[in-house]
User: What shape does this take?
Amino acid sequence: MPVIKSVKGFKDILPDETGRWQFVENTARRIFSHFGIREIKIPILEKTDLFRRGIGESTDIVEKEMYTFDDRGGESLTLRPEATASIVRAYLEHNMNAADTVTKLFTIGPMFRRERPQKGRFRQFHQIDVEYIGEKDARVDAELIFMLMHFLSTLGIQSLNLELNSLGCSLCRPGFRDEIKSFFMGKKTCLCSDCTRRMETNPLRIFDCKNEACREVISSAPVIIDFLCDDCRSHFDRVRRFLSLLNVDFTINPFMVRGLDYYTNTAFEITTGAETSQNAVTGGGRYDDLSQILGGPAIPGIGFAIGVERLISLLPESLETDREHPILFIAALGDEAQQRAFEFSNALRLRGIPTEMDLSNRSLKSQMKRSDKVNAEYTLIMGNAELETNTAPLRNMESKEQTEIDISTNDAFIASTLRKLRARGDKS
Ligand code: HAM
Assistant: This one.
């Protein structure tokens, strides 16, 4: 029978990789706490309507990429393709707006999109997602982006390109929509079938198309920043001004529209030197209408999500993450010694000393090899002779120095081992 493999596009994160993941997540938690951002944990499964309405019916995500199924009760459910709609849902459901004018939230976890797997693109991937909900001031946009840049550079990620655009609002976007509709209408024969369809349903989405012929047409299309209303223009100017005040460099990319329909005003993506914008490590923007789209009051918001797999692939090669290793390995030979070692090792673990032993009754030589392999700092060697004298040698695996440990009783063993280990701590 063939061994069952994982699902295409879903990958295991193996123990040798998790050190880097922990480094990224711990750094995120530390930096977010400096900016007053609190963690929220949201479900992986939501009602399909949340994403249909939130992300938009005519986006690639909703049209082609969601894992949607009817549960046994006949309700349509979807594995979350992103976190923003869920966080805003949770915010509204729990009346979080009552607590503070701006609620700053983050979540870290898996998202699901049935895209074509390729380098940097998976069907289950992870995001670090941050949302600032409740305040529209341009300083909020600038602070969020500043914090994001600070986070990425703290991780050692170099040559970050921040691209910025404004996507207007429900006042100025309809005019732009009409303009590009007639522009694309005139180039209809050059567009792919998806874009021809989108011309009717949602012409802004044509800007997402990766097809080369469509990209050629898009490069001469009108751009939304030329159509902004006074409020949107002034907001965009202020965001740029506050970013400059905080010494954040950026470029304006008037063709960047982001792939989700909920965006209004500020939109941004960050790429690094080697990448193209399809491979952005992070993207985000303002979504001042999303609360209303989901049935709530008018509450503005802005956020971003970082793709953790892409982020980790950009970490410096030289980054060393600590690999947990035991302080003590107990090599025991014979039934009685093995039984004592079994008691001792578990008693030490309860006292916070990482301890290992071999449970396969192997030869002393192979136990010593295993101690080396797991990179134990010390090895205690215990056989019949040691049981008779009630003392056992504790070997420092690096210096090869040996001291004697009292193994007459469990308590004596613990006291004498802890004394030796503390003495080592004092020296360092
Ligand atoms: P997004 O641009 O769809 O935005 O995704 C954000 C990031 O998730 C991307 O820049 C990329 O690094 C990563 N990502 C997306 N799809 C994949 C995939 N198939 N495989 C690997 N990584 C992927 C959002 O999801 C918005 N919710 C961001 C946001 C938050 N906007 C406002 N608040």
